[in-house]
Design a protein that fits this description.
- This protein is mainly α.
- The protein folds into two domains: 36 residues; 55 residues, no CATH class.
- Helix content is 59%, strand content 0%.
């Protein structure tokens, strides 16, 4: 193989690696941005629903995870006021389970 062909292949390989690394950085920084969610009524309601679903999967025996560790963090503050459910019946009512 001539030397020019090797240089062209190496250049294309370096360019492809650079594009791949750039795409990984873009995906990573978008993922980081998602982790810093601002609390809103809709996001906190989704957090509550997901918590109840996970608790239901465990037959309401053990708490699924630490409520405070899941984003968004400020659901308990005014004006949102959505708190971690303490009673199984609250989650049952939310999920429509008798």
């Amino acid at each position: 193989m001539p030397e020019k062909a090797v240089a062209i292949h190496a250049t294309v390989l370096v360019i492809l690696m650079a594009v791949f690394i750039f795409a990984i950085f873009v995906i990573f920084f978008n993922w980081i941005k998602i982790q810093n969610l601002q609390a809103s009524k809709e996001l906190c309601a989704t957090k509550l629903l997901n918590y109840c679903i996970e608790w239901w999967k465990k037959d309401f025996k053990d708490k699924p995870y630490n409520w405070a560790e899941q984003p968004p963090a400020d659901c308990e503050k005014d004006p949102i006021n959505i708190h971690e459910p303490t009673d199984v019946n609250d989650c049952r009512a939310l999920l429509g389970i008798k």
